[in-house]
Amino acid sequence: MTSTRTRRQPPPAEARWAFFLDVDGTLIDIADNPGAARVDDALLGLVARLHHACGGALALVSGRSLADLDQHLGSVRIPLAGQHGLERRDAAGRLHTHAAPPAARRELRQRMDALVAKYPGLLLEDKGLSLALHYRQAPQLASWLHRLLHGWLNGTEDLQLQKGKRVLEIKPAGFDKGSAIAEFMAESPFHGRRPVFIGDDATDEHGFLRVNLIDGHTVKVGAGRTAARYRLADVSAVRAWLAAAIPLQGELA
What we know:
Layout: E1 17-21, H1 41-53, E2 58-61, H2 66-73, E3 80-82, E4 87-89, E5 95-97, H3 102-118, E6 123-126, E7 131-134, H4 142-153, E8 159-164, E9 167-172, H5 177-185, E10 194-199, H6 205-213, E11 217-221, E12 230-232, H7 235-252
Parallel strand pairs: 1-2, 1-10, 2-3, 10-11, 11-12
Antiparallel strand pairs: 3-4, 4-5, 6-7, 7-9, 8-9
């Protein structure tokens, strides 16, 4: 990860931007249990208005699965990337997926099930294409879990370990939020626009690096080292900044 001198506030929105937004920690506050997170009506309205204002050039880029995102979004239908780029639904509704080798996935699932059974506080989230082990309620296990899961993947080229905020995720190698954004940017209605990516976690750094390379705007939410060029304090600040972007997008997009 690259540490940059981030400015405290991103610039005012301009027309012809493409918006890529993380969800947990960016649009909604992080919950101890992923299933406890709630998307409120105010956020749904904000996302729907911005999506319309920028001509559809808005996508959520999340660690959650597409099924999970759809459940939280209800009737709001927008382009989505889930499981850190392993699955993606484009603006035309087409689904793109990248799966792990079945045999390796089954073995890892069995190992993780055994860990969860042995250590209270661990939570296994099977997202279909990836396996996420949450240790928010057992932070004392963090260092040991990092070493253990790294050891499981030693010598494996098809799989990689993705680190997040008190979560470790095993997923197919070569795909991340940056690759998902690049795929969107090659398609309508994103192509030809300037990308803006907002995220809060280590998993978002891939997206920041990719967007920086194509002269986009990158925004880190909260404190911490980052490759992002701008910073917003918290979820409330993100929502306020996005709300301010809507009139200009609607007028000039």
